[in-house]
Amino acid sequence: MRFYIKTFGCQMNERDSEKVEAILEENGWQKSDDPKTADLLIVNSCAVREKAENKIYSEIGRLRFKNRKAKIVAMGCVAQFAYDRLSKVADIVIGTNTIDEFCRIAKDYSVEGVFIKDKMEEPDHIFPHVKSVVSFVDIMYGCDNFCTYCIVPYTRGREISRKKEAIIDEIKELVDNGTKEVVLLGQNVNSYGKSLGYNFVDLLYEVNKIEGLKRIRFTTSHPKDFSKELIYAIRDLDKLCEHVHLPFQAGSNRILKLMRRKYTIEEYLEKVFLLKSEVKNCSITTDIIVGFPTETENDFEKTLEVVKTVEYDTSFSFKYSPRRFTKAAEMEGQIEEDKKLKRLNILQQLQAEITQKKLKEYEGKIVEVLIEGKSKKGDKLYGRNRQNIVVNVDFRDNIKAGDCLRVKITKALKHSLIGEPI
Ligand code: 5AD
Ligand code: SF4
Fold first, then answer.
1. Pocket of ligand 2, beta carbon within 6 A
2. Which of 29, 38, 80, 244 could form a disulfide with 2 if both were Cys (CB 3.0 to 4.6 A apart)?
């Protein structure tokens, strides 16, 4: 039996799709890139913006048209709340807390229906992985922050941390199977472990001890919980990579308050300055929303100021999208679409210039690259440096996925680097 899977959204969704893939493959299923020849067509959905939400419906329509015989599974964040509507177009609907249902589906092709639970019942369960040099590892599920624009607390539920032992066991098993780098995942990793009596930095120290593991990354951080101790850990732990994704969302304190982010931009910048001074060559990336309700030109200018001050290596910027269940969707002063787009274009142009300048700075420098595999075009090998920037190198007989090389950067492209192993 064959399955096809299409994934939208963040790394948590990518990891969930990987769980599904590994469960099905353990049960003798084969992955297919062609929906026409598959028996199960799976769409893993994202709800963070309206455009992403709508994609699940168009994708299901497209797949149905291509293959009328296969069963369709709708899963992920949209499935968690729109299960009624989805049950009319999909044969199986699986929410964010019921991925283990795939164990049944894998064995019994007649299973159909809607499987939704409000809560993750066994957060310490270790789901299987697909063999890979870089592996995502969930350390917590859900989010308790309720930023006023964000649907995530409603699609992924309340924050719940996995026990340290489960995480360590999972990583050790991964390393035994060839993983060299782990990316620890959570909506707000800095508040990891609060309910269990330990903290994220303790976990990092434990993970750093695992033999055979070469690199540790984590995402995503919330600035309000981003601590000095974490900055020192990035400075001191040899495996912890010099890259922090620290979403600031908006540069105006008035907007940050309306977003319920619980920090001021001055507090945010203070943490960034400490990070920059303690950790040499640390790359910093961020998320930004433009056109939040009531955002003025002056507020937007403040966002641009932050981008100029911090000089992010990359940023992910979005037009504010009103989401169901959220406070901001009900706020007065919604901004017109064309104004949002204008601001987004200005911001992205500024970021492109900064990204280019930062990438150029790598030319002639030597960096450590962990090779992950063949590049998309298939003509080179690709990997990442410790700052999470993609580096392409020419094929050589003695280089394979999992090798950690010293590479001299010869050229900066728009979003990546080219180099020669030395
Ligand atoms: N509109 C636009 N962007 C959003 N994000 C989250 N919710 C919304 C929304 N309603 C962005 C934030 C977050 C990233 C994952 O998605 O910047 O950090
Ligand atoms: Fe959403 Fe805020 Fe939680 Fe991030 S921290 S997932 S933006 S509610």
1. 143, 145-147, 150, 152-153, 187-188, 222
2. 38
